[in-house]
Write a structure and sequence with these properties.
By secondary structure, the chain is mostly beta strands. The protein is built from one helix and nine strands, in the order βββββββαββ.
Length: about 140
């Protein structure tokens, strides 16, 4: 599975883990809404902390909202791994997410935080060597 990169300061509309749930016969599961997935940080122990319940998106696809990363004490570079299992599914790994540098709300914010001035849509490298992305806010 590929690793999603998500800004550490992503807002709640952008913080989701994604799952495609199947049973033992590889048939999509459509009755897992409200189930509790788990999340591990940097290959640690899986726990229910920091991840909300599943929301059905159709045909076995689900999303689970993620808590505020900074509020959880997470840092740029951390890797989040998600999973889900219940009586009607096999254990499924969900999204694997790497936290990257923040979205900048303006050129000024980017200039004070990064080494080089960003171009909209391009990355900049902070002192830890982590790329941060900037988007125009209107």
């Amino acid at each position: 599975m590929s690793v999603l990169q998500m800004p550490i300061n992503a807002d709640s509309a952008e913080r989701f883990a994604y799952f495609y749930l199947t049973d033992g016969s590889n048939v999509p599961v459509t009755d897992a809404a409200g189930g509790q997935p788990q999340m591990a940080v940097n290959s640690g122990i899986f726990a229910n902390v920091g991840i909300g319940v599943l929301e059905h998106q159709g045909n076995g696809g689900y999303v689970a909202p993620l808590s505020d990363f900074v509020g959880l004490g997470l840092e740029v570079g951390d890797i989040l791994t998600t999973r889900f299992d219940n009586g009607s599914t096999i254990e499924i790994r969900g999204s694997q997410i790497q936290l990257v540098g923040p979205y900048y709300s303006s050129h000024q914010d980017a200039e004070t935080t990064a080494i080089s001035r960003p171009v909209p849509g391009s990355g900049t490298i902070n002192r830890r060597g982590i790329v941060g992305y900037y988007r125009e806010v209107t």
